[in-house]
Specification:
By secondary structure, this protein is mainly alpha-helical. It contains 16 helices and no strands. It has helices at residues 7-25, 44-67, 72-94, 100-109, 116-119, 123-155, 159-184, 191-198, 200-220, 240-244, 246-265, 279-300, 305-321, 331-348, 354-374, 378-396.
Amino acid sequence: MLNQKSPWFYAFVLISLFLCGVTFLMPLLPGPFAYFNLRNENNFAALFSGIFLLVIALHAYDGWALNRLSKPSVAYAWLALSLVLAALSLDEIGSLHERVTWLRSIISDGTFAPPSELQTMPRTERMSAYWWSLVPFGVLLVGAIAYAVSALWRSIEDKKTVILIGVGFSLLASVALQEYIERTVDWSANRYLSIIDSTFRPLLEEGTELLGMIILLSVAMKNSRGIFSEDERAGFPVFEAIVRMRRVILVMGIFAAPLIAYITASFPPEQHDNGMPADWPAAALFAMAAIAAARPFFVSGKTTGWYGRGLVLLALVGCGSTILHPEAPAALPLVTALAGAAFLVWFLSADYPPASYLPAVAILSAALAEAWYIGNSDFVVYTISQYTALAFYWVNSSVVPTGASSTNPVTSHRTNEPIPGRRRRPIH
């Protein structure tokens, strides 16, 4: 049985070190390494950071599931931290804080152009307006973190855990100060500042952020059981949000996807180099679909067979595809291929009866047919990408892992009791 120092933890550490190395050495590396440069937006590095935060959020949600009946104050503290981390994940992939001035225009006059008064402001005044626009969001996040840390400090005996949570979020918060320095200092003033800006400054900023994530992961993982626990009998909770929230996520995703796609497609072309808001729902759903397909392993530490590994791989490819621009020639064909391959795996696997995947396949088929008819527009691709990820997540999360703890306090489809009419997954 694995524990908190499992390959799951060290995988995030090693990937983080690799990305930091690429970011530091980027001036000496060939062009393709730019996809792994933490300084850039809308690439694999930014995607990893966003999914990293999402994974920590899922572990934090397990803290709510674990304590909600016995220690409500602790449970709600972890729930608050989970929501904060999910919001940070959204910002990391969707580049929301970089567009805070656009939000003013959307609210005031329904346009997606920066406010006209900002375009005529001197640079210092424009920067001041930008940072003041972030204050309401900062106050909200800091307030939620302060509430959670205070509740945990009063309610749990392990003060080290609370201290590490504070250190982790402090490191994340320091990035805002570093961004302020980045935007206010003229790094082109001399040769030495230019060298610092191209090497040491981005390494310090991004490394600080990843270090904060690693600390938070080491703490939040303790909420999850299965292979993350030293107790071999413990099988609950294991990424409980993926199964507990699946119906809520389904309904929200169906109605929200077109709206998010419309807003995203309406941003001006000069904004397309940053991450896009529609990228986050698709990436997050694909990531949760991969975790859902691997939950039998996370519960028992045993393999799920070729079909489980195949679904994990397809979902990860789908997650990676979210960095593609909608106008890229491969964007829509890749989504189509992923949907077809997933259907084949679901069909061949005994774990997925037709009732679990045929509705998703029917909806995707209709959406893809409409997409090919309408054309490869940004709105269509953003919408289809989200719906495909939603279908992956919904079907993959329908399987109940074997080996779950019989003490699981949630409803029957998340316990060790079989659901009537559903075939259980054999462990290979």
